[in-house]
């Protein structure tokens, strides 16, 4: 589909050039007609590819619903044994080391068993040799990265319309070019603006060219605030390289580094041995009830903070149907609903009454916006869940707004469905200290979490002077 889109864009540019120059140069009619015919053919092929993609997505969605239904179906003991035996022994794990810690002396009296644990992507078999049910799953929030070969390519993304940020970007780019011999990429607009100051920098020429070039980026330097980090996330549709964020914006919840120590911090990331916070992203896909709708946003789209469904300019309450793994969860009557990642839990979701969630907690948050119910409280879902939000045909509003990280927007019409799940491609954010210390420091410094005057100690009768 990308090839078709690229070919159509190229021919369209040629056609526009010919139309601009036809007043100066008389061209035969046949080449013009051939170009126009070819553009129409490519656009038709592109539409057919979109329709085929929608068809297969509908089919895969049905298969996923059937899969979730099959998981919920009660299985006999013999069925579970067959499933466990068919899973590769290489994936089987033992809990014997944990069991030895506190296994009761008469554990032999229990019947032996195994545990079959499945997510939406894989299944694992755990053998409880001491016949105790324990778990060794823990959130892995101590993530360090080391380079097997030195990095050589960097992308610098800056906050727009700020002279100080632009000057800092030029300084960093020149330092990386001259001192570290790096290949430095800039966004096309930034590259064109600063071509004289930074003659050795690189850029890309089209969306298709960027798809190829982004695989060369070893890490990203973000100069700005939290919005700049969200923009970096939107540039990478799948895998995101490590992002080091310098605080040059307003709030700076995702920007732990001070710009005054930029060379020291960049030297550290080049050497390796850095701590990373793997910020979960949400993978969002819209499934249209009526085929043939041309999307303005390439699907699926990844959101770092949240996806929001709201009533937009309409004054009517929003009615939505909410499903989790194919199970009808509830009917939503509210101004809208927020589905947030742990990173987004301190953004819009927090303002709507959602809980703050540590970035290493594998989950999604469902937070209603002004619900017309006293009992509709925010929920947390496990990271292997798939949420589906549908605008029913019985809704009073003809459409609702859907936005991803507050920028990319589209309309959800009656019968359309929004699928949201945790993406397999997080945003690796470079930590200043480590994930725990960085997050708690941000919560306290930016949100003034639990800041109050300390209570004076109780002075008993014997303590008075």
CATH level 1 class label of the largest domain:
Mainly Beta
Mean pLDDT: 83
Helix content: 25-40%
| CATH structural fold name of the largest domain | Tumour Suppressor Smad4
Q: What would you call the structural class?
A: alpha+beta
**What is the name of the CATH architecture of the largest domain?**
Sandwich
The rounded Rg comes to: 27 Å
Count of beta strands: 22
Kindly report the name of the CATH homologous superfamily of the largest domain.
Probable inorganic polyphosphate/atp-NAD kinase, domain 2
Strand content: 15-25%
The geometry reads as globular
Which stretches are poorly predicted, pLDDT < 50 over at least 5 residues? 92-96
**Number of continuous helical runs:** 11
Strand arrangement in the largest pleated sheet: 11-10-21-18-13-14
Structural write-up:
GO terms for molecular function: ATP binding; NAD+ kinase activity. With 465 residues, the protein is α+β, with helices and mostly antiparallel strands. It has helices spanning 2-21, 29-72, 77-86, 96-102, 163-178, 188-193, 207-213, 226-235, 262-271, 348-351, 435-447, and strands at residues 93-94, 114-118, 123-127, 143-145, 153-158, 183-186, 219-224, 243-247, 274-279, 282-287, 301-303, 306-310, 318-324, 327-334, 336-340, 363-369, 379-382, 386-390, 399-404, 408-413, 417-422, 427-430. It folds into 4 domains: 2-56, no CATH class; 77-100 and 111-133, no CATH class; 143-278, Probable inorganic polyphosphate/atp-NAD kinase, domain 1 (Rossmann fold, 3-Layer(aba) Sandwich); 282-425, Tumour Suppressor Smad4 (Sandwich), CATH 2.60.200.
């Amino acid at each position: 589909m990308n090839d078709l889109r690229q070919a159509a864009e190229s021919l369209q540019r040629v056609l526009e050039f010919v139309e601009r120059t036809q007043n100066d140069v008389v061209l035969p009619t046949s080449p013009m007609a051939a170009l126009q015919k070819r553009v129409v053919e490519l656009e038709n092929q592109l539409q057919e590819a979109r329709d085929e993609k929608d068809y297969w997505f509908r089919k895969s969605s049905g298969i996923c619903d059937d899969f979730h239904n099959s998981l919920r179906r009660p299985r006999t003991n013999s069925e579970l044994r067959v499933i466990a035996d068919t899973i590769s022994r290489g994936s089987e794990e033992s809990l014997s080391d944990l069991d030895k810690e506190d296994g009761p002396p008469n554990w032999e009296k229990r019947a032996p068993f195994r545990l079959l644990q499945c997510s939406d992507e894989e299944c694992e078999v755990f053998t409880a040799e001491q016949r105790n049910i324990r778990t060794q799953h823990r959130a892995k929030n101590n993530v360090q990265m080391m380079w097997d070969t030195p990095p050589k390519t960097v992308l610098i993304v800056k906050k727009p319309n700020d002279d100080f940020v632009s000057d800092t970007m030029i300084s960093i780019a020149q330092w990386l070019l001259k001192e570290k011999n790096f290949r430095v990429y800039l966004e096309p607009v930034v590259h064109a603006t600063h071509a004289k100051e930074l003659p050795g920098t690189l850029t890309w020429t089209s969306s298709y060219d960027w798809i190829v070039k982004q695989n060369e980026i070893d890490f990203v330097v973000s100069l700005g605030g939290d919005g700049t980090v969200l923009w970096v996330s939107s540039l990478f549709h799948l895998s995101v390289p490590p992002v080091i964020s310098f605080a040059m914006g307003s709030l700076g919840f995702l920007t732990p580094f001070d710009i005054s120590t930029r060379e020291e911090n960049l030297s550290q990331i080049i050497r390796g041995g850095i701590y990373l916070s793997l910020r979960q992203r949400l993978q969002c896909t819209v499934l249209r009830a009526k085929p043939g709708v041309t999307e303005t946003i390439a699907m699926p789209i990844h959101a770092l903070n949240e996806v929001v469904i709201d009533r937009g300019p309409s004054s009517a309450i929003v009615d939505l149907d909410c499903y989790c793994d194919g199970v009808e969860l509830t009917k939503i009557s509210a101004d809208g609903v927020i589905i947030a990642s742990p990173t987004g839990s301190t953004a819009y979701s927090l303002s709507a009454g959602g809980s703050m969630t540590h970035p290493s907690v594998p989950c999604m948050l469902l937070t209603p916006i002004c619900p017309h119910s006293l009992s509709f409280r925010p929920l947390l879902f496990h990271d292997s869940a798939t949420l589906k939000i549908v605008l029913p045909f019985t809704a009073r509003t003809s459409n609702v707004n859907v936005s991803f990280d507050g920028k990319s927007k589209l309309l959800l019409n009656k019968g359309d469905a929004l699928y949201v799940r945790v993406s397999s491609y997080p945003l690796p954010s470079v930590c200043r200290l480590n994930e725990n210390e960085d997050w708690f420091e941000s919560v306290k410094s930016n949100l003034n979490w639990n800041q109050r005057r300390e209570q004076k100690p109780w002075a008993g009768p014997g303590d008075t002077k």
